[in-house]
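Entry type: protein chain
Record version: 2
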Amino acid sequence: MAGLHPSQLRRDDGRIELFHAFMGLFMELLPRMLGPYRDPLEPIWDQAAELYGSFAANRGLAAGEVIEEVQVLREAIMRAIYQDPPRGAMGQMGLREVLRLNRVCDRLVLHASVGHTDALFFALFQGSGVPESLSDDVRWEIRQQLESLRAEADAFQRVHAF
């Protein structure tokens, strides 16, 4: 993740910390999303992605910029995988696993875009038309939601012990 350079993080008012918290959560959930328990974990993945999209809107990003950031994450994942390919029961990572990984990354892009659009819609609906900036309260709320999603994923892992 050291090569990721998120848009609009030049000012550090907690943005970098939150960005890395999101990326850490996505990287933690990714292997679980590729395994046998992906269906029950999809709502957590989707909520995290939508929250990331909302975070991007609060940072003032355009819709294309949030998608670009997620695509950079996808590229980092692909580079890491092909640098040291995981070995399955049959040896190399198969086409099925690569396609599943792409579907999971596509889902991240989709739901980040939905979260961004929702943030813009609710800002317009509530009157200002501009999403709330990253105040201390907004950053605290995002952190709380991230911690809740991480706790939910960890609780699921403890119960299913994989």
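Comment: The mean pLDDT is 83.
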